[in-house]
Structure formats: C-alpha cells, structure tokens
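Hey team,

Filing this mostly as a record. A colleague (T.K.) asked me to run one chain through the structure pipeline before their review meeting, and I want the input and output archived in the tracker in case anyone asks later how it was produced. No errors, nothing strange. Just documentation.

Input sequence:
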Amino acid sequence: MEQKLKTDFDKFISASNFSSQEIKFKKEALDNFLKNGFPSRKLENWKFLDINQIIKKNIGELTFYNDYSIKNEIDDNIFIKEIEHNKIVIVNGKVERLSFEYEESDKINLTTLDNINQNSNYNNSLLSLNNSFSKKIHNILVKKNYSFKKPLIIYQITNEKVSSTNINFQLNFDLEESSSIKIINFSDDNSEKNFINNLFNFNLGKNAILKNYKLDKKSNTNIKYDYSNIIQKENSVSETFIFSSGSDYLKNEVNCNLEGQYSSAFINGIHLLSKNKHHEIRTNTNHLYENTKSYQLIKSVIDDNSKSVYQGKIYVDSKAQKTDGYQLSKAVLLNEQAEFNAKPELEIYADDVKCSHGSASGSLDEDSIFYLMSRGLEQKTAKELLISGFLLDVVEKITDEEIKKLIRKIIGLN
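Output structure:
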C-alpha cells in the first residue's frame, strides 16, 4: 500500500496548484499517515470497528488519486422538494455547485482556503490522510447578527465513476457573533466499495447557533468516516442530529469544545441497521469553561447480523464548574445475531458539576406486542409501531419544526 499511496500522492500534487507551503504540509500529513496507517483494534477508540481489516476485506487495494478535473453532471431530481433551501452539491469529493439564492450575499463570505495547519491532529491518522489528499477547503463565513433565511442542504453524492477509491473532503463554517445556520447533510451514494473520509469544522462565535442534521439512508457498500469538529464560544448553541442507516460501514465522530460560559451542545442520533451493516457514533464533549451544558441521546434498532456502537465521553476541566452533562444510549435488538456495544465515559476534574450517563439494551417488549395484537394489529405492524415510538423520541429532540417534519418523512417515521 505504501508505494501505491506515494505514487498516487505525487500524481495528485502534480495535477493540483498547491503552494510550496501547502505541499510541505501535505507531505508531513502523508508521512504521519504512513507511520500510523489505517486505525485498527489496537487503538482504544477503534476497538469496535477495525477499519484497517474492513478495507482489506471489502475493498482490497484502494486508489488514493481522485481526478477532480472530471466534470460531473447533476440530476436535479435528487434535490429535496419539500422545503426551499440553499445548496452545496459535492460529487465524488468535488464541489460542483454552490447556491445561496435565498440569502443576502453581503452577509455571507465564501472563500477557498489552503489547509496549512488545519486540523493537523497527528493522533488521528484519518485526519492526516484527509489533509494529504483533500483539495482546497471551502470556507463559509456567516457574518455578525445574520441568520440564514433558509436551510443549507449539502448533497454528498457518489456515482459510478468511482470505485475502490479513497475520497477526501473538507468544509469549514465560521459563525460570527449572534449568527445562525441550519444544515442538512444528505448522502446519495450510487457507487460501490469506496472509502469516504469527510472532515467538517464549525467555529461558533458568541451567541451563535448551529443546527446540523446528518442523514445516511440510501443503502450502499461504501465505508465512511465522518469527523465533525465544533468549537463554541460564550452562550453559543450547537444541535447535531445523526440518522445512520444506509452505508455498509459508517463511523460518525463528533468532537465538541465548549470554550465559553453558557455554551451548550446537543447530540442526538439514530442507528437503524439490518443485514450486515456496522455503524458507530463516537462523541467527545469537552467542557472547558464554567456553566456549560451538554446532552446526548443515541438510540439503535438492530436486525440481522448488524452491529451498532456508541462511544461517548464527557470531559470536564478543573475550571469548568457548574457543568451539566448528560448522555444516554438505548438499543433494541431484533434477533440473537444483532450486536450493540456502548462505552460511556466521564472524566471530571471539577467538584461542582452534574454529570450522568446510562446505557440499556434489550428486545421488543412481548407484552406490548401482545397488547397491540389483541387490539387487531398484525404482529409485523405491532412491531413496526413499537420501533417507531422508540425512535421518535430522538427525532422529537429536533428543535426546528419544518426540518423535523422533513426528516420524519425521509427516514420513514411519520
């Protein structure tokens, strides 16, 4: 793999217009990835999902070079019709369309950045891989006191032009003081057996509000890693919702740093898995200042030979007094082969805090099924009704009513 990776890297650099500083940064990131490789079970954070073995077994040899010069056609039928929205369309890791037609252009600044010193977290080899092979970073700045009038839907599409390919993508959002944005990240995969490696950065200024909804529903054989890094200042609020169902393997990782007092982070997620899918949500919520709050609720319904994992850590710094942190994970296993793993963690260095975590798993309640059947429902319908009720508790945490209605329709929980 090493020689293939180096050859593809040289090809990627020669086909791009990077500065000497960027090339140096990318080479350093590549060296770090070569040193550490794909994560395996040897790492505590990857004990439940050995992506190194998964790639070897399901893809084999990866192509790391992605030809961004190829023009990709966009079928407008993919666009969500139920709500008016702004668009970013990404096809095979390339931004093909940016449309902010509902917004005031002078309130938004769209720029393309280099990625020198962006997320150079050398403890995470997949971020190093992303830094090595990602193109220029698109940065969206929302100016002070401006709130997006309509949601922004990010369409992440793959097509038949890519197979056994590593796709790397980065996107930055800067929210200035008292600004806000609502984002729906919608996956539409029509490719087979690729490794997709996404990195999203969110910087929230004082009083800023981020509402971010991530939907992976369409069944596909891709392997995905999606990393979101959220930095929050005083009195800012982030709301993250994850629906994870379609890809064969998917790990969503959310790192949230609460760096200002009265900042709050809410992370809610659903795993709805069947066949042999393996999905994981891992969260790091770092309370770094006093009077901060976090809430996490993750629910899974697992069928066939699928596996659901939730790893959630709440860290409380010594100066983060009056922290309020809560996390809960629950799972329903529909057969004996289904598997659920939970690893909740609390690391607390302050004494005036209120933190708790919990986890539970089991099968559907037979008495409830019997009760519904006694009222005339078939067994299958009774089970579907109980599953919907179990998952709707998470969907109801969505604070935007229009988006809540849309997501309920998309994921089939009307």
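Quick notes for T.K.: Residues 308 and 343 are 12 Å apart (CA to CA). The radius of gyration is 21 Å.
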